[in-house]
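Contributing new records

If you add data, match the layout below exactly. Sequence lines come first and carry their own label; structure lines follow with theirs. Keep one chain per record. Anything else will be rejected by the validation script.
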Amino acid sequence: MIGAALTPEPAVSKGFTIERTYYAMDGKKIDLKSATGGADQLKQNERMVVVLKVDATETGGRILLVDRLPAGLEIENPRLVDSGDIKSLSWLKTTLAPQHIQFRDDRFVAAFDFFGSNDGRRGRRGGDDGENRNPASSATVAYIVRAVTPGTYVHPAATVEDMYRPDRFARTAAGRLEVTTKE
């Protein structure tokens, strides 16, 4: 059979930990229980900053981070992430810029190079600035979402994996999110 499991898979950490946290635009933490396996509500048109923090038990690796969105949410204009909204959030601390980033309709995707150096790795290009950096074992990224469509939705798990060592991965718990109509 092909498809999604009827019951959500539990949170797991094997070589990584992944933390998904939500904040109001002013930096106040929002305890969104649906992000940790529970259920919660948002009002239509409400905006939040999603912060994803990944820690690895060892340095090195090509890391893929995927945060699937509940159907009632959408990512705010991604062109603003580097030039506008995210940079204006002085409270937000991000680390290790992704090598690749995608803002899709249903998910946020970021790829990281935790190796840091091109020593001995065929086909590896240096960083955009031409300099090598130290190997990494953690990354923090953020993006902005808006609650747009009223309804009750599955809040899928966020996942992280080492693309070439499948035994190293982690995922958060999945939950349920209700988007209520704007009053």
